[in-house]
Amino acid sequence: MKKITIAIDGFSSTGKSTLAKQLAQKLQYVYVDSGAMYRAVALYALNHKLIIDKKLNKEILISHLPEIKVSFRYNELLKASEIYLNGDNVNTAIRTMEVSNSVSIVATVPEVRQQLVELQQEMGAHKGIVMDGRDIGTVVFPDAELKLFMTASADTRAQRRYDELIESGAEVTYQAVLENITSRDHIDSTREDSPLFKADDAIGIDNSNLNKEQQFEKVMKLVKSKL
Ligand code: DC
Questions:
Q1: Has this prediction a pTM greater than 0.90?
Q2: Nearest-angstrom CA–CA distance, 45 and 66
Q3: Does ligand 1 have an atom closer than 6 angstroms to the CB of 17?
Q4: How many structural domains comprise the chain?
């Protein structure tokens, strides 16, 4: 069967990765979480003390870029890909609030974006891929056959993210999560290089009032129309 590229963009915590994983599993496509790649670079910057009081030392980070190797490896037990930074599994380490609070700043650096976009384009060279992020339909795969742009109210998104973090044992307040989400929305959509916006040919999906199954059904109809 013909293979296509599915690009899913949208604000933080709109359920992009849940939908992308459902689609990849159903279609037997590769799933790539591009946000995890930016998070891995942010983790590197934090580990190397390149971010202090939310201030990033851009020049040093840029000079370290040739040493920053981000990759995915499939975990047979989990039946999912996990992200590696210079050979270390950082799948859990990239999900802390500390990384969430630093990643948008790291993602404003054009040199970082260039390095990660090249990798993403290589991963999608043979189609049969679902990638989620902020610039997938606009920059990474502007020719993707199906582009989705996901939205939901900030409150809905913060509540979902808060529930996930609490379930994973993190100690956070709802207010801190809401502030992180609104601050990232602002930085992601106003940065100069590859800001988050809906591509003209992307289909908007507001899932504030849709459950996962309803959303998946709606999107599968769109996928079938493209195959
Ligand atoms: O999807 P996420 O929330 O894990 O992404 C983390 C951050 O990475 C997000 O705030 C912005 C940045 N990002 C980006 O700039 N471009 C992408 N394609 C994916 C993520």
A1: yes
A2: 13
A3: no
A4: 1
